[in-house]
Amino acid sequence: MKVFFPQSPVKSAGKSNIPWLAGFFACFGFIFLFELLFQTEARKIEYENRLQTISYGSVLLAHADRELNSLLFISSGIGGYLAAYHQKLDTKKIYAILANLYSGGKNIRNFGIAIGYRLTYVHPLKGNEKALGLDYRNIPQQWPQVEQAISSGRGILAGPIQLVQGGSGFIYRHPIFIQGKYWGMLSTVIDADAFVQNAFGDLQNDDFDIAIRNINAKGEAGETFFGTPALFANKHVVVMTSEVPGGKWEFALNAKKSSSASTLLLVARLTGYLLSLFVGFGVYFFLHDRAKLTQLALYDSLTGLANRRLLIDQLEQTLSRMSRIDDSLCAVFFFDLNGFKKINDRFGHKVGDTVLSTVAQRIRAEIRVSDLAARLGGDEFVIVIENTSREHIKNLEQRLRESIAQPIKFDDFDLHTSAAIGIALYPHDGRKSEDLLKIADERMYDDKNKNRT
Fold first, then answer.
1. How far apart are CA 224 and CA 334, in angstroms?
2. 398-407 as b/e, with b when 16 or more CB fall inside 10 Å?
3. CA distance 221 to 213
4. Which has the closest alpha carbon to 176: 70, 277, 296, 85?
5. How far, in Å, CA of 111 to CA of 191, rounded?
6. 3-state SS, residue 90
7. Burial of 452 (0-12, 13-18, 19+ CB in 10 A)
8. What per-residue string of b and e applies to 202-228 under the rule 16 or more CB within 10 Å gives b?
9. What rounded mean pLDDT belongs to the chain?
10. What confidence score (pLDDT) does residue 10 get?
11. Separation of CA 108 from chain center
């Protein structure tokens, strides 16, 4: 079993991704949370706006139905008269009835009575002279509605359409049948502009956009006669319909966004994002500082190797694991640098620190990732090799000696040093950490004294 010891954390701490990742996820998490809150609030506002729009639309529809029905009801009386006296029509009585109906209704432009397909009676006649005597079959714009009213036997409301006598209007055509046969047509022409103004003028609300169009019996949409046609292309609008004779009116309503509510929501969202960034940076700096404190407590600040405290702790854990594994072999290397004191005295501590850092780099280059390298202080180093063999130990000792003996360049100088190495093996030389370190230390001094002779 191999245990991987972290190497050189002091130098890599500033480049560690853990604080950055933790800060990023904390920031992202808070942004996600705030965004959920904002979306919920936005949906709540949208829902409330939709309810208000539907409520407002219901008022519009009710008012339009009331205004329209009051106009269509006016003409019902004369239809009964024509059916009863069709064989003995009195022109004066007909015009008198039409004049009475006209004076009692508002928004009515004129009444018309066609016998067969020809417009025979018109009131008021002034301004409508061009309509008198017209044959519906010769008016392409109006004939489809006339034909539909006759074929269905029901009244049809068409428009607004351009009238022969000028202007635009809604036309309610009510066919008259006598003994099951078509006899004539009663038409009520409603001034489109006046009707729209009377029906919706007092109900207009600056908080809403409105558009109204006619839908015929075939489901075909006519021109928008009130509001902006583009509103029907907006998928977010509320669409409501009101039944009219021979079709329906379609209302598109959209609540205008409140600038104050939008501004408040935007400010809240930006505040949430700034708070999320603050939390993210807070988590990053907290973990970064904790990592630095941990490094200072467990690692040598100059070389980045483990310090004495971490060495003892890790060595104890290693020996505990080794005691549960048969035929396990662990090696403790203890060495210091020959000639280091002379370099330090001659060139100063700056150069000495360069030598120690370079040696630490060379040690890390020779050992495995699972091995532990530590600096005890001064020029003393310790390496713990777990789950190894005598051959590996011998080869590693040779590589360390050769690597450390290589010249170290500083400015124009080649600095020379070498390693005095002592090795203690577990379990042959001892089973306790202090015993192994003591034996390795003694053997290191034996190696140093041997090289002096």
1. 94
2. eebeeebeee
3. 7
4. 85
5. 11
6. coil
7. exposed
8. eeeeeebbbbbbbebeeeeebebbbbe
9. 82
10. 42
11. 54
Residue 21 contacts by C-beta under 8 Å, 6 or more apart in sequence? none
Task: Answer for the pair 408, 352: CB distance below 8 angstroms, yes or no.
Answer: no
Q: How many CB atoms lie within 10 A of CB 50?
A: 16
173/154 Cα distance (integer angstroms): 8
Dist CA 318 CA 306 (whole Å): 15
Dihedral through CA 242, CA 248, CA 249, CA 253, nearest 10? 60
Confidence (pLDDT) at 53: 84
User: Distance between CA atoms of 225 and 190, rounded to whole angstroms?
Assistant: 14
Name the burial class of residue 336, with classes exposed (0-12), middle (13-18) and buried (19+) by CB atoms within 10 angstroms of its CB. Answer: buried
Residue 339 in 3-state DSSP?
coil
| Rounded Cα distance, 355 and 279, in Å | 42
On whether the CB atoms of residues 302 and 291 are closer than 8 A, the answer is: no
Kindly report which listed range (18-32, 69-83, 95-109, 206-220) carries the lowest average pLDDT score: 69-83
Tens digits of per-residue pLDDT, 398-442?
A: 999 999 999 998 887 888 999 999 999 999 999 999 999 999 999
In the chain, the amino acid numbered 373 is A
Would you give the distance in Å from CA 61 to the centre of its chain?
A: 37
CB 374 within 8 A of CB 305: yes
Return the exposure string of 127-157: e unless at least 16 CB atoms fall within 10 Å of the residue's CB, then b.
Answer: ebeebeebebeebeebeebbebbbeeeebbb
CA distance 71 to 195: 10
Contact 364, 7 (CB under 8 A): yes
Q: How far apart are CA 32 and CA 24, in angstroms?
A: 12
Nearest to 400 by CA among 380, 421, 386: 421
Crossing angle of helices 17-74 and 259-298, rounded to 10°: 170
Distance CA 208, CA 234 (A): 14
